[in-house]
Design a protein that fits this description.
single chain; about 350 residues; mainly alpha; ABC transporter involved in vitamin B12 uptake, BtuC; two-stranded antiparallel sheet; 15 helices; 4 strands; about 0% strand; globular; LivM-like; cell membrane; membrane; branched-chain amino acid transmembrane transporter activity; Branched-chain amino acid ABC transporter permease
Length: about 350
């Protein structure tokens, strides 16, 4: 029987299950459920335009989580994520538009095909690291886009392909709200899988490879196996994101998966926070909405000063690059670390000393 005169202090875990929980504190779990509930009712209160932006943020977050598994958690640099998005998008387009398969079969198949392609281009990772590995993944970007652009009979070449929105039981995900909920569910599944992945033996091996690959090999971790596996798992989620993006925009075309897309996804995980699942989501929201905010600022200032509108349009890319540089200089761990600092401050406030 618990002694009523003994006052507990802090959080105590009495078994392994409690100690290994994703959210160990009950109030944190409640906060997560409240956030999920707010996100669930969000499209009922917002306009279609805002819901569409949220959908794009969710798709970018799924792809960014996949890239962060490879780059942030395993330490393998990749500049070919744009091409892997294209593999996912084109695979789903071919399966649905040409073979007549259901989207619910095409989407996971797109992830599997992208995972196989990513694993093949990940084979050099045992011998290459750093800048050399980045160049190898850049070669993947060039090769994949070349195949997509030239294989006219399969991919439609530079003209691209037209897709349709997914449907289930006669219900078509045509509205912005319905597609938002689809992305919302896939993002939750992706997040939970990734959080649990890095509580497993495989996830811990990924982190060990990132921190010190030679030491990891000494303690028995198969570097080749886990480096290639990181490419496979990462590419799977990137391929799923590519399929979801293709069916959302209802078109796939080679120019949609250029090197600039790969750089944008790298910016997402850098700004959000390398090695952070939720940082990938923060970065996806930030980078996706930044051009929208800059465009609104340009339109506002153009209304006040019409003569400088041309200058301001050219400044959007400058501001975008400047934001990334400032994050790298002043907060290399990204938005995830900024949010952690805020929480730590209020956890001790007002007795911060």
């Amino acid at each position: 029987m618990k002694n009523p005169f003994v006052m507990g202090c802090g959080e105590f875990h009495v078994n392994y299950k409690e100690d290994m929980a994703i959210w160990k504190i009950s109030r944190v779990r409640i906060r997560v459920f409240i956030m999920l509930a707010l996100l669930a009712i969000f499209p009922l209160l917002a306009s279609d335009y805002v819901v569409g932006l949220a959908t794009l943020c969710g798709i970018a977050a799924i792809g960014a989580i996949g890239l962060n598994i490879l780059t942030g958690f395993t330490g393998q640099i990749s500049i070919g994520v744009g091409a892997f998005l294209g593999v996912g998008g084109y695979t789903s387009a071919i399966l649905t538009a040409k073979l007549g398969l259901s989207f619910w079969i095409a989407m996971p198949t797109a992830g599997i095909i992208t995972a196989i392609v990513g694993g093949l281009f990940g084979l050099p990772s045992l011998r290459l690291k750093g800048l050399y590995l980045a160049i190898a993944t850049l070669a993947a970007q060039v090769i994949i886009l070349f195949v997509i652009s030239r294989w006219d009979s399969l991919t439609g070449g530079t003209a691209g392909m037209v897709l349709s929105r997914p449907e289930i039981g006669g219900f078509i995900f045509h509205s912005e709200t319905s597609y938002y909920y689809l992305i919302f569910i896939v993002l939750i599944i992706t997040t939970l899988f990734t959080l649990n992945l890095f509580r497993s033996r495989v996830g811990r091996a990924f982190i060990a490879v990132r921190d010190r690959d030679i030491a990891a090999e000494v303690i028995g971790i198969d570097l080749f196996k886990y480096k290639v596996l990181a490419f496979i798992v990462s590419s799977f989620f990137v391929g799923v994101a590519g399929a979801l993006l293709g069916h959302y925009t209802m078109v796939v075309s080679p120019e949609l998966y250029s090197i600039s897309v790969s750089i944008e996804y790298l910016a997402i995980i850098l700004v959000g926070g390398l090695g952070s699942v939720f940082g990938s989501i923060y970065g996806a929201v930030f980078i996706t909405l930044l051009p929208v905010i800059l465009r609104s600022g340009v339109e506002l200032l153009s209304g006040l000063f019409p003569d400088i509108s041309n200058v301001l349009v050219g400044m959007k890319e400058v501001v975008f690059g400047l934001v990334i540089i400032l994050f790298l200089i002043y907060e290399p761990e990204g938005l995830a670390k900024i949010w952690k600092n805020i929480k730590d401050y209020f956890r001790l406030w007002p007795f911060s000393y």
